[in-house]
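Teaching assistant's notes for section 4

Start the section by putting this record on the projector. Ask students to predict, before seeing the second block, whether Branched-chain amino acid ABC transporter permease will look compact or extended. Collect guesses on the board.
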Amino acid sequence: MAQKNENTSGIGFFKDLAFWTAAAIALFVPVVGFTTYSDMNTNSLQFNFTNAAFAFNDRWGGFVKAGVMVAIVVAVRAFVLLRPKREKSDRVSPVAAALSRFSVSQTAMWLGAGLAVAFPLVMLGALGDKGSLKWIDTFGIGIMIYVMLGWGLNIVVGLAGLLDLGYVAFYAVGAYSYALMSYYWGLSFWEVLPLAGILSAFWGIMLGFPVLRLRGDYLAIVTLAFGEIIRVVLINWRAFTHGPDGITSIKPPSFFGIPFTAGPTGFAHTFGLTFSPIYTKVFLFYVILAMALATAYVTTRMRKLPVGRAWEALRENEIACRSLGINTTKTKLAAFATGAMFGGFAGAFFAAKQGFINPESFTFNESVMVLAIVVLGGSGSLLGVVIAAVFLVGGLEILRELDFLKQIFGDNFDPGLYRGLIFGLAMVIMMLWKPRGLISNRVPTAFLKERKVVSGALVQEGHG
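Reveal the predicted structure now:
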């Protein structure tokens, strides 16, 4: 039976809530509510008390902003206090069991692939060439890139249980592999794509060797340092990588040698169509979709192989894994190399899509975003990664479109500036509500007589 927290009874609940309310008011009202400015002489933040209109950013705008933030803090704290404690149980609800089975079924894969294939066609039919350009590019292609990155990191974190905070390094290796080979040697995207995956896998092995004996926080720190080392090298090796200036004029992939240009040899002229940039975006969408589906297929197949079962055994208990005669060294290296390879593929596509890359595209924030997608969706769940990528990436982009909020908070209000706040708040609430992700239950790869859904409370999260 679920039991409520002791703080929810009597005066203790109201004392706790009053404390957090006062703390939130003291924090947000001065900083957010009052008009402030930066004093260049003292290099500090100052309040504009000398101006009669200083109060609450033109009187009411800042008051509303500060009130919203205080209300958010109080609501989250009340949620924590009122949330009933959950005991570990091997019981799985019928809804969760059905969702878990659906997530690993062939029907889910075919249904998801069909919806993805139809997405650009539906957008074109509903919004036309110009109206659908943003949705296919920003939402469709952007989300699919993070889905592929999430599935690649899911091998390391979700299946093998190795906490990797430097996954963006392999993303950068793949992107710069294609950019540099295209810039110096004129190689095409299709020629460099397998090389980008191989080079990223090689660096995955190079990272795996030094960290074989590390676990938990120590593994996270080393992988984080590896990601920063790669970024710093890209910045300082100006003679080769062009440093912070980046690399421009990167060639996009062609359609069997036919470029998407406006000339007589271009795609539109070859097929008797009117030139439009939408053809390039639709083609790029299907390219990343095919790459993501290949990632999902390989991951699903590898889970059924001995190496996939070794990954899951390593995640559950490394000592028991060793006692079964499994070579944990090769198992970890295989996980790092496989996950890095898919990150390299995604990086090469990102460079081809953007046409320009620099080290600022591969910061630690990218690793955090991909890891958040894996954890939020449920470590080890392919469907969970897709759902989390749609909500996090698509949701944060939709915040740029909420211009109607300017009628409430004023013309100077920019919804995009609050994306980080909403992102962090969503992660806090999600981890309090479902700490093991949206799809926390697991369907074992190997089973005896009958495939049963295992409760997420009985599955180890893995600590490297």
